[in-house]
Amino acid sequence: MTPEREQLRRVMEQVRRIEIRSRRLVDDTLAGHERSLFRGRGLDFDSVREYVPGDDVRAIDWNVTARVPGRAFVKQFHEERELTVWLLVDVSASGAFGSGATTKRQLAAEIACVLALSAVRNDDKVGLIMFSDRVEVRVPPARGRSHAMRVVREILTCRPAGRGTDLAGAVELAGRLARRRAVMFLISDFELPGQDGAAQAALERAALPVAARHDLVAVEIRDPREQALPDLGLVTLEDAETGQVVVVDTGRRRTRQRFAELAEARRADMRRRLTRLGMELLPLETARPYERELLAFFDARERRRAS
Question: In angstroms, rounded to a whole number, what is the distance separating the alpha carbons of residues 243 and 59?
Fold first, then answer.
């Protein structure tokens, strides 16, 4: 068997494992939550009817009422029947990192599969944008299980040309492509080069108008080794996206403590920025089962929707 065919075989096995695990999670655990996950605050105008005592006066259609003397009419709305779920998946070089059995890219693919299959159960369309420091792959929205699995295959087989991260470009593109209100999941580790202030400002400019019109959810993929260093003596660390190399003495307790403090500060700052932009935040970690976090996120959306 050629190396190319062997690689394809491994990828397809991984796709099948992800599908089996994701379908079990969707069917057995998340069943009934799809509407709370994908149906947001959007309403479509339906019709008008004559006002009856007890109706909310804020719903009165004054244009129609003015044309019919002595009678008042109120607007009626229905929840949007059609919704598109956009998956914006970061495939930059930092996603290849994983200190355990699962890399950040693999976890991103599995989460994308869960979301795609949930959307399929809800009869919603799913679109995909994969990006590094450029748009790598774009899959137009469509329905159906086969389309959902195509999304997963695209993520797992992607060989990105870029190494860096352009979050702003991906969000801006999704905003242009989404003609109707959509739910957008931005799946990334949110590692910007050197926590570049210019990149953060660009993300803010791109995300503010998109979050105002759509439901924008930040799915943060982290690895525990990015937050804490083990005691391994002198260690060479390389930034996967910039190639910058530093030597760190992990044998010093103060060094490990300072690393953890800086990592947590950067993480907290990025989370504050995302929340300020109007994004919901779903933090996940490669070394920890994600089912509980997903369920808590679904439940929180359902409670907000009911309030």
Answer: 58
